[in-house]
Amino acid sequence: MAKPNESASALRYDENMRLAETDSSGLEWFSPIRGPFRIFGFAWLQKDEIYRRLPVNPGWNVPEDVDQLANCTAGGQIRFMTDSSKLSIRVRLSGLADMYHLPATGQCGFDCYIGEPGEQQYYSTTRYDHTQKEYENELFDDGGERKIRCFTLNFPLYQGVEEVYIGLEPRCHISAPPAYDNEKKVIFYGTSITQGGCASRPGMAYTNILSRRINLEFINLGFSGNGKGEPELARIIAEIANPACLVLDYEANCVDTESLRASLPEFIRIYREKHPKVPILILSKIKFAKEEFSETSAQVLEERKEIQRFNVEKAKNQGDDNIHFFDGSSLPGEYAQECTVDGVHPTDLGFLMMANGLTPVIQRLVSQ
Fold it and tell me: Where would I find the SGNH hydrolase-type esterase domain in this sequence (predicted)?
């Protein structure tokens, strides 16, 4: 009989809660930076050969916090095909899991999807000791059946990855994944929500959900607390070649309404200098839980939406037919009060609802 106040750790009673033993003996290890693997989501990877979301030497003065957050690997993906019946991953992180409201699986883990574009299904997430910066974990084992499969591995959302290696069976077939519909990229710039806070695993960030529905490369430039619409970031983002569209989702990081009023038209102007015809979507922020109970907060929300609508309409009146506004407060819909972990950052359900609302919008933009 259990004693009062005795620890009831589920690890003692449920083997599915424990760390799995990984047997990587006999596997051959590959760096995915080399072909036939393909890595997407890092616009400057070919130049710098590190997993980073901004260039190492951007040529513009980047705020220090943004520079540090660029080392978080949100939106990065490893894609390939293989007939290996086993797949393991070996990872060295830049730091430890340290967030109270974001699981280590989302902050520092990889997850695995199987299937070709449009048919990707979730398979597994890395299970590791979150007090460590290095881990090795089995992501796939089908019991020895050799069959060609397409794999997508999503990088951690809120931590840097210094090294990653893929472990496969010796003499297995490895080939490049199916091609995207074209070489264009869907670029998101914004906040902690854009970055993926607080998805339980990487594949549930809303940009990653969208990437499984729209067969293009996605670039996640969400900077937690620090995507504030600086002109330097507009210039850096404008350097990304072959944009399919640009989504600006940074309202929530503006310290006040006036900073949004000042930064948004300048950001648009700078981007339009290089990309006069690329679709731009201005996405206002989702509604936070406390805003349901504060008339003042509701007024601020409406004022900020009006600023964004005004800038879109002004640009349209000046002949820019490729700029659009979407009311983010409609996301994630009727379940908004139940879709966050802390009243601000969405859970997996919140991100799924956001993606559901944005999917037809992004599909229309990239088909223009």
Answer: 183-363
